[in-house]
């Protein structure tokens, strides 16, 4: 029974008229147009995935650079504290001033006067 049904379907398909050759050839332009659109769609998807990958790498690099910047900024802020500068100056034999600075004035007679 199954063989008979399959045979019947095949004979019916032989009798289907898909149209004349002129109609098929007139539709080739449309088929070509749809094919080109499909290729453009695939290419666009590929470019979009590549761009997203590049953006992700750039974001990771930016995050690492931001961490490095914050670390360096923190070290700089710590290193420029007066207490830290005094420690570094001691290594060079410099001492912190304990008196207030004086202003030196030269008068007309080439004498140097010190003002507190």
Helix/strand/pairing class, anyone?
mainly alpha
Assign a percent range to the helix content. Answer: 55-70%
Order of helices and strands: HHHHEE
Quaternary form? single chain
**Shape verdict:** rod-shaped
The count of helical stretches stands at 4
Radius of gyration: 44 Å
- Biggest sheet: strands, sense, closure? 2 strands, antiparallel
Mean pLDDT: 82
Quote the distance from N terminus to C terminus: 123 Å
**Parts with pLDDT < 50 across at least 5 consecutive residues:** none
Beta-strand residue fraction: 5-15%
Lateral arrangement of strands in the main beta sheet: 1-2
| β-strand number | 2
Describe the structure.
By secondary structure, the protein is mainly alpha-helical. Helices cover 70% and strands 7% of the residues. It has helices at 2-14, 21-26, 28-79, 82-91, and strands at residues 103-106, 112-115. Strands 1-2 form a two-stranded antiparallel ribbon. A hairpin with a 5-residue loop joins strand 1 and strand 2 (112-115). The longest helix has 52 residues, at 28-79. The mean pLDDT is 82.
């Amino acid at each position: 029974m199954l063989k008979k049904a399959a045979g019947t379907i095949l004979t019916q398909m032989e009798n289907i008229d898909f149209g004349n050759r002129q109609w098929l050839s007139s539709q080739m332009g449309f088929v070509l147009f749809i094919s080109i659109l499909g290729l453009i769609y695939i290419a666009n998807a590929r470019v979009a995935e590549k761009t997203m990958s590049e953006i992700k790498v750039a974001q990771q690099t930016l995050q690492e650079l931001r961490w490095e910047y914050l670390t360096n900024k923190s070290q700089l802020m710590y290193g420029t504290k007066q207490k830290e500068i005094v420690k570094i100056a001691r290594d060079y034999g410099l001492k912190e001033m304990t008196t207030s600075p004086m202003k030196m004035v030269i008068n007309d007679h080439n004498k140097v006067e010190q003002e507190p």
